[in-house]
Amino acid sequence: MMQMDRRPFLEEYEKLVVRMNTPRVMIDNAGCVDATRIMIDSVRKDGILLEAVQVLTDLNLSIKKGYVSSDGRWNMDDFPVCIFSLLITLSISSSSSTVFHVTNLDGNKLTDESIINCIQQSLGTVNRTKSKSIDGMTALELTGTDRVGLLSEVFAVLSELNCDIIESKVWTHNGRIAAIIHLKDCNSGSPIEEPQKINRIEARLKNVLKGDNDIRSAKTSFSIAVTHTERRLHQMMFADRDYERTPIINTSGRYSPLVSVQNCSEKEYSVVNIQGKDRPKLLFDVVCTLTDMQYVVFHATINTREDDAYLEFFIRHIDGSPISSEPEKQRVIMCLRSAIERRAPEGVQLELCKTDKPGLLAEVMRTFRENAINVTQCEISTTMGVAHNIFYVTDGIGNSVDLKVIDFVRERIGSSCLRVKELPLMFKKIERDEGGLGGAVLVSLGSLLRRNLYNLGLMKSYS
């Protein structure tokens, strides 16, 4: 009996699968006056919205508006009738259409062809996003109880154990701390892989993180592969249940959002509404948390006006059911508030730009600790032998640091290397109150001049 050659059929099948699983991306600069529109059509797959938002935020793009819709059906005109039956065997439930209105950080449309090409290439492969290896580095993860000087002790231990800190991001929220630190061995310049050294580092750091009375167990772990750093920080703080704790220091509360959850019984969705101050990466933080809580976003609307953001999400559990109880609603509200608050910077922003050397970070942190400066957030990076570090700092109870203290610290570290990048909110408020509407421009210009003189070392304080 002659058998049919199935190779052409299988090739068409493979092409179909690739086609359905490859997002279609269109970028339009003509359809909107003040933003670039990015349109994505794809198979609705768990996590794909997060991956798309992650691509845009990693390129430092601001998402001004957005629409997400999973319509639950396929346009069958796109597929040959002869292979329609194959769709029944595929575990694909619906398609998803997403439109983002984005600008660069200056609020302008995207005109850089390299950025546009990067968006098209990255969004076209989001289905294949994986954890990536860290080239030549080891990732160290830490969680524990936050306190003034904790980072100083952590970096001192790492320096003492000949660990070279290449990159790091640290978040604090509600008395908890989460950090991801990328390391190399100081002597060899290689990743730290020796089990004995790893055990020694973990033992020392756990003692530091526990402190004297840490009820919760401090956690440390090493890895040679890591998911997206900021997503991982969200996962670490979520697992640490920071949302259940109350703040131990004063916070401005300016980024605390209004969050509500209601059930739409007609469509069997739960509707999440968020209203608050807009800021970079806000949408990423929200979608990341919903994804990690095992919710699927079926429809969404994102809108920003000036400094305000309005977000609405229609969600279900991954099994298709809506939120079923009041305690679960309250948990979603708490988790989303925490996700938004934990990234929101508190305090004065300081920037350190200095030639890197062994122990530099430990020296800087020790100076902060000796002057009772609390680091609420930091981002460490090293490029071509130059350390570029951003710190957000307060005093020990969360208030703005006295600028005389900052002046003293700058002199100790190097006034040309450590600069004040952002004034505390309280000083901005004082300027508004004193200047009023009529004097706002003059006060703003005067403040800018004083800040530049201060950074140049020609002025001792803003007062």
From TrEMBL:
Species per Swiss-Prot/TrEMBL record: Lactuca sativa
Name of the protein this chain belongs to: ACT domain-containing protein ACR
SUPFAM superfamilies: ACT-like
Keyword Hydrolase: no
Lineage of producing organism: Eukaryota, Viridiplantae, Streptophyta, Embryophyta, Tracheophyta
Family matches, as Gene3D superfamilies: 3.30.70.260
GO molecular function per UniProt: amino acid binding
Domain ACT per the UniProt entry, residue ranges: 139-216, 349-435
Keywords: Repeat
Repeat among keywords: yes
Pfam families: ACT, ACT_6
InterPro entries according to UniProt: ACR1-12, ACT-like_dom_sf, ACT_dom
Function, as annotated: Binds amino acids.
Highest taxon listed in the record's lineage: Eukaryota
